[in-house]
Amino acid sequence: MSRKNQTLGEFIIENQSSFKYTSGELSRLINSIRLAAKVVSHEVNKAGLVDIIGAAGDVNIQGEDQQKLDVYANDKFIQTLKNRNIVCGIASEEEDDFITINSQDENNQNKYVVLIDPLDGSSNIDVNVSVGTIFSIYRRVTPIGTPVTIDDFLQEGNQQVAAGYVVYGTSTMLVYTTGAGVNGFTLNPAIGTFYLSHPTMEFPENGNIYSVNEGNYIHFPQGVKDYIKYCQMEEDNRPYTARYIGSLVSDFHRNMIKGGIYMYPKSSKATNGKLRLLYECNPMAFIAEQANGKASDGVTRILDIKPTELHERVPFFCGSKTMVNTLEDFIQKGK
Ligand code: AHG
Ligand code: MN
Ligand code: MN
Ligand code: MN
């Protein structure tokens, strides 16, 4: 039984029996993510004081200028998972290829792979606005004890065993699911402990917030343009409120608490949108569905898309069910 103010450590142990596969391995894995999140949170919180803001000088596989904090968070999460020897592979938004762990060790019995967006919302770092981390966990599909292959990472989102995010906001929160609902934990930075502050999080069935980079409006498909105009129309509980932070984790977190829809459509500039299926859309879609919300690419359920490459991008619409359903109707009509 979860109870408010339970620590994350206590919660993980007490809820272990709800895991699809019972073993301490997944618990240890989530514990490692908890540790890395605390380290990154500490660094994010003093970003203005130390030499950690600004560009790192490299361009990542996504074609983006890496920020120093992108690199720092990537290193911290990878190091923590590697050092504890609890995963057999890691894929990251910031790495060209997946990382194989202990491929030479035939006794390596690790069953899980982790996919991660170490620092989400990089463009917000320098201006002291919330950023996040997103993670996704699968059981490997190739035999235990052999090196991981690309097949272990290109699994449909519906195969995730756990997913979550950390939001480094006014407070640091870790929100995650293992397929039995969504729970949120707030970090008390004075003692470095996460406490259950948001048990059983759920999207309201309907909402009145829409989140989209409207500066790209001219490039959006007709159905999305029509839906945005619908959001702005004076009728029923509309016009809706527009809120866009530019950091998926923060926009999602707000919409889950208040009720809303997040949209990153394809456009004439970006034919598959911008968000990455494996590091961003799948984990957020799993959390959304576990929280009574919905996530789609406008037509298809995100979790049923068969990935074909590591850094694949897809259009992403996610949030309160009624709002995503209406958006899909507009896309269907507008094409
Ligand atoms: P990341 O910082 O991990 O590269 O992700 C940025 C993503 C996402 O967080 C955000 O919602 C979106 O990019 C914002 O993109 P635009 O600036 O194009 O609106
Ligand atoms: Mn990036
Ligand atoms: Mn991101
Ligand atoms: Mn990122």
DSSP strand count: 15
Query: What is Rg?
Result: 19 Å
Spell the H/E element sequence.
HHEEHEEEEEEEEEHEHEHEEH
Calculate the terminal CA-CA distance, rounded to whole Å: 47 Å
Sequence stretches where pLDDT stays below 50 over 5 or more residues: none
Mean pLDDT: 94
What's the total helix number?
A: 7
What compounds are bound to the protein? 2,5-anhydro-1,6-di-O-phosphono-D-glucitol, manganese (II) ion
> Approximately how much beta-strand content do the residues carry?
15-25%
Strand order of the largest sheet: 4-3-5-6-7-8-9-10
User: What share of the residues lie within helices?
Assistant: 25-40%
Large-scale geometry: globular
For the biggest sheet, the summary is: 8 strands, mixed
Helix vs. strand class: alpha+beta
Compact summary:
Its EC number is 3.1.3.11. The protein is built from 7 helices and 15 strands.
Describe the structure.
This protein has 335 residues and is of the alpha+beta class. The protein contains seven helices and 15 strands. The protein has helices spanning 8-14, 24-45, 68-83, 222-232, 248-258, 277-290, 321-334, and strands spanning 55-59, 65-67, 89-92, 99-100, 112-120, 131-139, 162-168, 172-177, 182-188, 193-198, 209-211, 241-242, 260-264, 293-296, 316-320. The strands form three sheets. Strands 4-3-5-6-7-8-9-10 form an eight-stranded mixed beta sheet, with helices on both faces. Strands 12-11-13-15-14 form a five-stranded mixed beta sheet, sandwiched between helices. A hairpin with a 3-residue loop joins β7 (162-168) and β8. The relative contact order is 0.14. The model has no long low-confidence stretch (mean pLDDT 94). Residues 70, 93, 117, 119-120, 122 line the site of one manganese (II) ion. Substrate binds at residues 120-123, 213, 244, 274. Residues 204-331 form the Fructose-1-6-bisphosphatase class 1 C-terminal domain.
